[in-house]
């Protein structure tokens, strides 16, 4: 079961460039009955390993935009402790309720994009399609980096970092649209840069989880990580064949069903 969970996480991350971490928490809580705090830490570890493999596959593509990516990652990492603090202070039922709300919000965005901009869903993937490499700009300072652009990127990075610490998500569903909107880079560049940020943020989050005394069962984490790596490679390879509006809508529905299922299970236990 752990290999299958890891494969699902990696495959979704490979197919979409984001989103694998969103399903990690419901799968770990619902199928393995892990506490939310432990599941969040395990999720970060598995997502980080899968993202690192994805990052290595993109290093030669020239699509990674390093300056905004590293800036975003550093700010998000700095915000991780706040998310971790909230993770350990908030009741489990409240955490899952907030997570369900987060997942539904992301799912609605994905569904609306697939409906209103079906052409975009064909390229917002880890693979497939031709890459269009464009230099980063800032939409709000006449095309040049400026304080307003860095401030807005920083605020989005803080949100991604807090979400990572609380829920064990990499934040790709925040990173990709923010990079596209604020910097004007291509979708392929945003996805590749998102993988860079996810690997750094999720990896740092997992280290913070371990240092703070989180439960790290290697017999559980390693199979999930191995499954995630295989899933990432498979998802990246299949992206050009499976990407599209229908797949994105299906993914949105699965996200909502997973989150609601785990929430109901927790409420029944309570």
Helix/strand layout:
Layout: H1 2-16, H2 20-32, H3 36-58, H4 66-89, H5 92-116, H6 118-121, H7 147-167, H8 172-183, H9 187-211, H10 218-242, H11 245-269
Q: How many strand segments?
A: 0
Unreliably modeled segments:
123-131
Straight-line distance between termini: 25 Å
Shape summary: globular
Proportion of residues in β-strands: under 5%
Number of DSSP helices?
A: 11
Q: What portion of residues is helical?
A: over 70%
Helix-strand category: mainly alpha
Mean pLDDT: 76
Rg over CA atoms: 17 Å
Q: Tell me about the largest β-sheet.
A: none
Number of domains: 1
H and E order: HHHHHHHHHHH
Characterization of this structure:
The chain is mainly alpha-helical. It has one domain. The protein is 79% helix and 0% strand. It is built from eleven helices and no strands. The longest helix has 25 residues, at 92-116. It is globular, with a radius of gyration of 17 Å. The two termini are 25 Å apart. Mean pLDDT is 76; it is low at 123-131. InterPro entries: TM_pro_TauE-like (IPR002781), TSUP/Inactive_protease-like (IPR051598). One of its GO terms (cellular component) is plasma membrane. The chain crosses the membrane at residues 36-57, 64-82, 94-111, 149-182, 188-211, 218-238, 250-268. This is Probable membrane transporter protein.
């Amino acid at each position: 079961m752990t290999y299958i969970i890891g494969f699902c996480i990696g495959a979704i991350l490979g197919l979409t460039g984001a989103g694998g971490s969103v399903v990690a928490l419901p799968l770990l809580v619902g199928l393995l009955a892990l506490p939310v705090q432990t599941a969040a830490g395990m999720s970060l570890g598995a997502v980080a390993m899968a993202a690192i493999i994805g990052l290595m596959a993109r290093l030669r593509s020239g699509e990674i935009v390093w300056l905004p990516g590293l800036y975003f990652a550093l700010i998000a990492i700095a915000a991780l402790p706040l998310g971790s603090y909230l993770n350990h202070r908030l009741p489990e039922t409240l955490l899952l309720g907030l997570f369900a709300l987060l997942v539904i919000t992301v799912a609605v965005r994905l569904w609306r994009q697939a409906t209103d901009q079906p052409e975009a869903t064909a390229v917002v993937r880890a693979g497939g399609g031709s890459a269009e490499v464009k230099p980063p700009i800032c939409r709000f300072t006449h095309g040049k980096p400026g304080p307003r652009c860095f401030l807005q990127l920083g605020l989005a990075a803080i949100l991604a970092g807090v979400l990572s610490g609380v829920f064990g998500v990499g934040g790709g569903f925040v990173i990709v649209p923010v990079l596209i909107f604020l910097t004007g880079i291509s979708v392929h560049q945003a996805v590749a840069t998102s993988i860079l940020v996810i690997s750094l943020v999720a990896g740092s989050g997992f280290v913070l989880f371990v240092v703070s005394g989180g439960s790290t069962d290697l017999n559980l984490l390693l199979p999930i990580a191995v499954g995630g790596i295989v899933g990432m490679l498979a998802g990246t390879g299949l992206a050009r064949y499976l990407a599209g509006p229908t797949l994105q809508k299906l993914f949105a529905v699965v996200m909502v069903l997973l989150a609601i299922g785990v929430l109901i299970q927790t409420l029944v236990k309570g």
